[in-house]
């Protein structure tokens, strides 16, 4: 840019020259110290882009220089410098054609580059407008007048380009049918008397029907005031009477009409721009995003209400300050340097930033910084728009907590516990340390859930979690894997004994009873399995699997205890898995058979019935004992289908023998606790009896006492439901569980079966004999029949006889045998 600076004050001139050198090093600056020197330089040294002139010069004024420039139509922008408070002079300068002015106040030098740029843009725009030809659509019916006017204007005002038409219809045909400007014409020149319509009617159509705002100049031979008034009312821009010499005035009138039209359009555009600005301001004021605008030095010049809402700083506390007063101290210098580098280089930066509110609280925000540029593309301001994302971060943190923690106990869930274990293994591997994984399962937790309800179960789990946590170090991990299963992770373990100590401490912690909110007292113990890294596995899955296997052994070996993982547990687990797979297949392939063990009257040895006992005969392999597969069938739920099959098979067999006229007595079928829990036993029985046609009194159901207790409150309803079908009920394995006759007397039990472990030592163990005697006596008092299991010797039978036991089964008379053998030996006397 080339600038001529006309200034007589040497101090001002010096300051400005230095400022230019600093801010606009590429500008070519020429100096003049007076009006005459200014004129001289403009005339002699060639053109400049901008003249910057002080208003008060020793030999004249800046306005005179402006007039000199404008008279010569020099293509330069003109900016005047005024003293502060000299507003009038500034306005006069603008009226005289200055493109802008600058008041010499405190920081005018800083604003100077932007002002010069804007003035240059404005001057260029005005020049463009002035150099463009003005298109005049001229409607004149008289050929002579048309030719005369055309010739006159071509000479006096060649920039006015006339297109002549001879009718109103031709005018209408050339103009758009609706809206705004007239397209191909800048001004309309209409003769009043047109052959098809007078100019007033034509103006009415153009303004009112078509809504065109093109300037209209009307000429008429009749100088009537009434027509003139009407024309102006209809929106005609100017009105000229064809008096002698009017053609000399016409160019000025047309030019003025054109400029007025431009002015009207500019004003409309300005109004539109102001409306737009108002709208933008309203948007900025009402947005929930904080907005701050700073100048190029970074001083805040504007903020919106959301800024105050988020930061807590009112406008008077923020304006004029550098936004660094919001800094949180969380980011280092290089962070801010990177941000500014991007903003200066690309005019844009976006990212997450931590700031500090007025109340001292730190918060995260998502900030977008943009440079605002003027028409010449130079930055004038920076705008920062930010969203307070603290709520979002809180929600994210809550979601992450939910995803990684058990909602009931707030302990780490399986996902987090396993990921901590994985990490702990990495650390142990690096540091050559040992760690222990403890899998802990509550013993008979289901009983609490089933008998006291799920909310009591939940309360108990929370209490257990709290007790476990209280026994662990801060750095130990306690997680809930699901249900009543917990995991403890002990890192940096000196020796395996450390894990044993923690396990026994945990078992001790669970020793005292839990008293729940409703006053119920519950005893809850745990079985714990321990695996060690690196001894028992080197990845998290192996360690969990092995600790789990050890935990199952702890359960199998009496519960409320702890077991360490050993190699043979792996083999056991593999065998169980294999058995489970084969079991599923066996049921589908019909590899099961039912054997029947006969039961007899102690008094006379006669057959009173039999117990149905299932056998698994895999093809080509030895028979598998129910003791091996029934527990797995129960765990996997296969017992439901298997038990139903046994029941149907036995009922069908009994019905067949009865139909033959034989006397097989009652058939006893075992009912497992899992069958009761997982299926509708009553419906299953009803269906079996209906389908086979066996009379209900011929069917006896054997339920262990512990199965019954596991039903809790529902035991009574369950037994009443079964009894309502007409079947008989027997308590199996009596003596091995709670052996509570007081408990059993509430139910309509028909028979007690004394477990063979009591029968075995009847002859040698006085205690067993005393217990058996008491059981028989009490059962008789409760009107229950007593049947002894596992009778193997005549001595045992004699003692049972003495005690008054009514029935027995056992190898003394027969093991369980296939149906064919049973029929032959005990029914047909073969
Ligand atoms: N839910 C179901 N459980 C069943 C079913 N079939 C069997 N079982 C249960 O499996 C366990 C083992 O049964 P099993 O190997 O058949 O053992 C039974 C008898 O064979 C055995 N018995 C009988 N007489 C003697 C004897 O004189 N000495 C001796 N050492 N053992 C003997 O006792 C078992 C009888 O069991 P129970 O009367 O049920 O307690 C066992 O728990 C079965 O209940 C089935 O279809 N469903």
Automatic annotation (TrEMBL):
Pfam family, one: Response_reg
Limits of the GGDEF domain: 433-567
Organism this protein belongs to: Thauera sedimentorum
SMART domains in the cross-refs: EAL (SM00052), GGDEF (SM00267), PAC (SM00086), PAS (SM00091), REC (SM00448)
Response regulatory domain location: 2-119, 135-257
Classification via PROSITE patterns: EAL, GGDEF, PAC, PAS, RESPONSE_REGULATORY
Residue stretches making up the PAC domain: 349-401
Tagged with keyword Nucleotide-binding: no
Keywords from the named record: Phosphoprotein
Domain annotation PAS: ranges: 276-322
Name under which the protein is recorded: EAL domain-containing protein
Coiled-coil segments on the chain, per record: none
Domain EAL, first and last residues per copy: 576-830
Residues with the 4-aspartylphosphate modification: 54, 191
């Amino acid at each position: 840019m080339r600038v001529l600076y006309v200034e007589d004050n040497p101090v001002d001139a010096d300051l400005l020259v230095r400022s230019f050198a600093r801010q606009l090093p590429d500008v070519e600056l020429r100096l003049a110290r007076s009006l005459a020197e200014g004129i001289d330089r403009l005339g002699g040294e060639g053109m400049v882009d901008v003249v910057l002139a002080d208003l008060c010069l020793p030999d004249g004024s800046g306005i005179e220089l402006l007039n000199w420039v404008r008279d010569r139509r020099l293509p330069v922008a003109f900016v005047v410098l005024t003293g502060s408070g000299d507003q009038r002079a500034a306005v006069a300068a603008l009226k005289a054609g200055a493109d802008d002015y600058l008041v010499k106040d405190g920081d005018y030098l800083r604003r100077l580059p932007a002002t010069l740029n804007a003035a240059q843009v404005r001057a260029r725009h005005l020049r463009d407008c002035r150099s463009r030809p003005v298109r005049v659509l001229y409607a004149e019916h008289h050929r002579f007048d048309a030719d005369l006017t055309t010739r006159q204007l071509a000479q006096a005002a060649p920039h006015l380009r006339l297109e002549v038409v001879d009718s109103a219809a031709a005018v209408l045909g050339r103009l758009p049918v609706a809206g705004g400007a007239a397209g191909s014409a800048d001004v309309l020149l209409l003769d009043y008397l047109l052959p098809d319509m007078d100019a007033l009617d034509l103006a009415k159509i153009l303004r009112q029907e078509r809504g065109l705002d093109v300037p209209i100049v009307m000429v008429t031979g009749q100088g009537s005031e009434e027509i003139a008034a009407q024309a102006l009312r209809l929106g005609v821009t100017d009105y000229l009477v064809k008096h002698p010499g009017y053609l000399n005035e016409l160019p000025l009138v047309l030019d003025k009409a054109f400029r007025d039209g431009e002015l009207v359009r500019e004003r409309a555009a300005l109004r539109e721009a102001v409306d737009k600005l108002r709208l933008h301001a309203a948007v900025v004021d009402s947005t929930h995003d904080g907005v701050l605008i700073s100048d190029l030095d970074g001083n805040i010049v504007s903020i919106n209400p959301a800024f105050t809402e988020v930061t807590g700083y009112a406008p008077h506390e923020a304006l004029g300050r550098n936004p660094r007063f919001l800094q949180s101290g969380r980011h280092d210098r290089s962070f801010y340097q990177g941000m500014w580098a991007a903003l200066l280089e690309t005019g844009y930066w976006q990212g997450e930033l931590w700031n500090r509110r007025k109340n001292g609280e730190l918060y995260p925000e998502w900030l977008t910084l943009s440079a605002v540029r003027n028409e010449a593309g130079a930055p004038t301001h920076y705008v920062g728009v930010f969203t307070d994302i603290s709520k979002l971060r809180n929600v994210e943190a809550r979601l992450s907590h939910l995803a990684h923690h058990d909602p009931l106990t707030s302990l780490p869930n399986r996902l987090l516990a396993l990921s901590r274990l994985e990490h702990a293994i990495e650390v142990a591997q690096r540091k050559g340390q040992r760690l222990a994984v403890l899998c802990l399962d509550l013993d008979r937790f289901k009983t609490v859930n089933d008998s006291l309800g799920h909310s009591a179960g939940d309360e108990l789990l929370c209490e257990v979690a709290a007790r476990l946590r209280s026994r662990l170090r801060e750095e130990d991990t306690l997680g809930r894997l699901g249900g009543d299963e917990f995991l403890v992770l002990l890192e940096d373990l000196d020796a395996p004994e450390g894990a044993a100590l923690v396990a026994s401490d945990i078992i001790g912690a669970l020793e005292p009873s839990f008293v729940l909110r409703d006053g119920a007292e519950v005893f809850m113990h745990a079985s714990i399995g321990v695996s060690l890294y690196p001894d028992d596995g080197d990845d998290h899955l192996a360690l969990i699997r092995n600790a789990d296997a050890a935990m199952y052994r702890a359960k199998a070996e009496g519960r409320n205890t702890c077991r360490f993982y050993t190699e043979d547990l792996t083999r056991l687990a593999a065998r169980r898995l294999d058995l489970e797979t084969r079991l599923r297949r066996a049921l589908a392939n019909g590899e099961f058979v039912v054997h029947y063990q006969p039961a007899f009257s102690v008094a006379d040895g006669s057959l009173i019935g039999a117990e149905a006992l299932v056998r698994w005969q895999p093809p080509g392999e030895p028979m598998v004992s129910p003791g091996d597969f029934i527990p797995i069938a129960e765990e996997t739920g296969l017992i439901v289908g298997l038990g139903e099959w046994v029941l149907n098979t036995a009922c069908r067999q009994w019905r067949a023998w009865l139909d033959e006229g034989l006397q097989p007595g009652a058939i006893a079928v075992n009912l497992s606790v899992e069958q009761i829990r997982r299926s509708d036993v009553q419906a299953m029985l009803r269906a079996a009896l209906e389908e086979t046609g066996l009379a209900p009194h011929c069917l006896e159901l054997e339920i262990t006492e512990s199965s019954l207790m596991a039903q809790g409150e529902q035991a009574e309803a369950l037994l009443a439901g079964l009894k309502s079908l007409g079947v008989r009920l027997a308590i199996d394995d009596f003596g091995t569980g709670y052996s509570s006759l007081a408990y059993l007397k509430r139910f309509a039990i028909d028979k007690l079966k004394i477990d063979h472990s009591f029968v075995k030592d009847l002859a040698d163990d006085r205690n067993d004999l005393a217990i058996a005697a008491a059981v028989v006596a009490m059962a008789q008092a409760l009107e229950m029949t007593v049947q002894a299991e596992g009778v193997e010797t005549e001595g045992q039978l004699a003692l049972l006889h003495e005690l008054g036991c009514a029935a027995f089964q056992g190898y003394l008379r027969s093991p369980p045998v296939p149906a064919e053998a049973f029929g032959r030996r005990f029914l047909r006397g073969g």
